[in-house]
Amino acid sequence: MGKSLKCVSCSSRLPDGYPKKLCKPCISNIVRDEAPSLKEELKTMIQEEIRSSLAHLSANPPDLPQPKKKRARSPSPSDIEVVAEESAHSVKSWEEGERVSDSEDDGRRYYFSTEEMSDLLKAVRSTMGVEEVQRTHSVQEEMFGGLRVKKTRVFPINESIRDMILDEWTDPEKRLGVPATFKNRLLFDPEESKIFNEIPKIDVQVAKVNKKTSLPFEDASQLKDSMDRKADSLLRKSWEAAMFNVKTNIAATSVARSMYLWLGELETHIKDRASREQILESLPLLKSATAFLADASAESVRFSARDAALSNAARRALWMKCWSGDKTSKLKLCSIPFSGEYVFGPVLDKILEKAADKKKGFPEDRPSKRRYPFRPPSGQERSYRGKGKSGRWSYPKGGRGRGQSFSQQKPSDKQ
């Protein structure tokens, strides 16, 4: 017979063929004592594995399938929508796990981090040829310069962009010109974009307040005051410009966010040492998307400038309503060039200098004391006929009804 086996902990005899060195009671005691620590170690190990996996996915986004291209061509809106939908599902997991430095960027609303702002501005200014001014610091600036508010880099406003904005402000009421070549790029489903293409109509309940027709036809009612009608017309044009801006930015946002994913794919291909031909195949699409963004952003600036000019002209109509001048002058003042600092600006000063009143004030129309020097207009007599003592023309001169201040004297006996 062989040597009997014993438990190394309690020295109790183990059955023949028992594979372990501890008996079952001893194993149960150890597991019961060490279970809490084992659970914590296992939890920590799992968390570390998850963190490392998410960090790896954030640095290396998953490779997305790309359709084979026969030749380089500009992306159509349908291609952009397909790629955006396919990309949204495949990158959802690593996007949600990726940490965002900005506290306001919950839910991946913003892809760009403010920590990269300085480097981006530096690159943009360098590309545009804006020189960074380097000046020497005096001893006092070295001593007390840290107390001053630190200046940060800013986006430069190009002179051509400024001129484009001022050109839209020169004639606020001119027709909004949208080139057909650009309008054909804003391709949307007519049913989905219907809300942006049509100017809202006046509700029937509101139109009845100002109706001038016997039957409630659409758009048959209109505002009574001429300046109110002018403001309404300007605000309708402002809506049109704003909706063109909305559609332009919707298309630009779709292209820009798709491009963000495409650049992530390109980065993955480069890290994986993909073939040179495979990398060159993706460049025409990226270049085409960049060109679309360049055109859309410029047109968006122009639409915004026109919207601002029209809304300011509507404010002019609101303030001109209080002036007692003639209607033609009011309408002309609503259309003068806009410079941006004041609602009317320096053009108003030049107009008032040419007016009869040299005090730079609005000339007032002095109403005539007698509106009807000879007789009232046609129909005025009929409106007062039959009103008795309250009527203006009810009694002849010297008769009754002229007022209580003229008491009728009794005729004398001599008369």
Major pleated sheet: none
Structural class of the helices, strands and pairings? mainly alpha
Outline type: elongated
Q: Strand-and-helix sequence, N→C?
A: HHHHHHHHHHHHHH
**Oligomer category:** single chain
Percent helix: 40-55%
- Tell how many strands the DSSP assignment holds: 0
Mean pLDDT: 74
Contiguous runs where pLDDT drops below 50 for at least 5 residues: 87-105, 383-397, 399-408
Ends apart, CA distance between termini: 173 Å
Number of helices: 14
Q: Report the radius of gyration as a whole number of Å.
A: 41 Å
Strand content: under 5%
How does this model look, in words?
- With 415 residues, the chain is mostly helical.
- The protein contains 14 helices and no strands.
- Helix 6 runs parallel beside helix 11.
- It is elongated, with a radius of gyration of 41 Å.
- The N and C termini lie far apart (173 Å).
- 10% of the residues are buried.
- About 11% of the residues have low confidence.
Describe the structure in brief.
This protein has 415 residues and is mostly helical. It has helices at residues 24-59, 77-90, 92-97, 117-127, 139-144, 159-170, 180-183, 194-197, 204-207, 226-271, 276-320, 327-334, 346-354, 380-384.
Keywords:
415 residues, mainly alpha, 51% helix, 0% strand, elongated
